[in-house]
Amino acid sequence: MKRIITISREFGSGGRTIGKGVAEKLGIPCYDHEVIEQLVERSGFAADYVKSQSEYAPNGSLFVNALNAGNFHGLSNQDKLWTMQRQIIEELGEKENCVIVGRCADYILRDRADCLKVFIHRDFQSRAERIVQVYGETEVPTEKRLKEKDKRRAAYYQFYTDQKWADLANYHIVLDSGVIGIEKCIDIIADLY
Amino acid sequence: MKRIITISREFGSGGRTIGKGVAEKLGIPCYDHEVIEQLVERSGFAADYVKSQSEYAPNGSLFVNALNAGNFHGLSNQDKLWTMQRQIIEELGEKENCVIVGRCADYILRDRADCLKVFIHRDFQSRAERIVQVYGETEVPTEKRLKEKDKRRAAYYQFYTDQKWADLANYHIVLDSGVIGIEKCIDIIADLY
């Protein structure tokens, strides 16, 4: 069984940066946007469409899609993408030791790999400051943007995993990256591996 | 401002053992049962009564008391004990650097000390095994005992702090002591201090 670190995170908490740092320190690959890229390739959908149907969706229709999906016998595009994403993650989990950021990997690999399940969070205000620093300003006010992303991520996770988002029972270690610091989070996780 | 480590924990997770281990490693005191002892002394109530009205209550009436408390102008005994407990914890938080296990110290000291807020959890089955090992069998079946303690602790915490119990947003670090191991938990927390 491969040894995988899954990193779930609140938007703006620095979870992706931490994932990359841990992977670098351990000399193993870190998968994040690579999953989206593979999804674009396999699905034949346009990259923007795939992103808009994933947890990265910039605005709105995800939850509605997810609900509608249950009302039809065929699979919605949303559901097809979920199925492909699950396959990609399962393949990663069988291929090599690695870090996987987001994408419900903690749930998908729960019985298939020796997972260290990590959750990264941070207080709202400091996430708001961080996303402006890292991603820049957009037309949507920062607070609104953050709240929407939080809602979207939680809805996506809960719909497809049937588990509550951000429930500490699902994680082996949960870190507040604002208080503990990104570097220290990397050290602790890499050391635990 | 004193530097305090507060350890909240699920019953049977080993949080108390971890608290003591951290305190020993750092050469600072660990307060746990000492708070109850002071509470007995100050309140003049019998030790068993104080325990039965606290989160350690072996059976039942806590939540009912907590609800009733709101219906009277005077303070219930439960509320008096909470007020005294809060004072004891506030005094500890002003006196010295220390570890405090349970007793809503994370909430009570939130603006009064430089707190590292820790939560320790562990899966239900392994907690059930651990409480039999540590506390021995009782007449009440282990699973029932565990579920009641969980409910009591959550109700107590939520009633007096107005915060959700076991909400990861309230903690700087959350550790699964079953997966990570008691010794490793001690190392990580002591190192973070």
List keywords for this structure.
homodimer, 193 residues, alpha/beta, Rossmann fold, five-stranded parallel β-sheet, 5 strands, 55% helix, 13% strand
SSE arrangement:
Two copies of one chain form a homodimer.
Chain A: E1 3-9, H1 15-26, E2 30-31, H2 33-43, H3 47-52, H4 62-69, H5 77-95, E3 98-101, H6 105-108, E4 114-121, H7 124-135, H8 142-161, E5 173-176, H9 177-180, H10 182-192
Parallel strand pairs in A: 1-3, 1-4, 2-3, 4-5
Helix pairs in contact in A: 1-10, 2-5, 4-8
Protein name (chains A, B): Cytidylate kinase-like family protein
GO molecular function, one term (chains A, B): kinase activity
Keywords (chains A, B): Kinase, Transferase
Short description:
Chain A is α/β, with parallel strands linked by helices and 193 residues long.
What does the model show?
The structure is a homodimer of 193-residue chains. Chain A has 193 residues and is α/β, with parallel strands linked by helices. Chain A has one domain (3-192): Rossmann fold. In chain A, 55% of the residues lie in helices and 13% in strands. Chain A has helices spanning 15-26, 33-43, 47-52, 62-69, 77-95, 105-108, 124-135, 142-161, 177-180, 182-192; strands at residues 3-9, 30-31, 98-101, 114-121, 173-176. Chain A has a five-stranded parallel beta sheet, sandwiched between helices. The radius of gyration of chain A is 16 Å and the shape is globular. The two termini of chain A are 14 Å apart. β5 (173-176) of chain A pairs antiparallel with β5 (173-176) of chain B. Chains A, B: Pfam families: Cytidylate_kin2 (PF13189). Chains A, B: This is Cytidylate kinase-like family protein. Chains A, B: One of its GO terms (molecular function) is kinase activity. Chains A, B: Keywords: Kinase, Transferase.
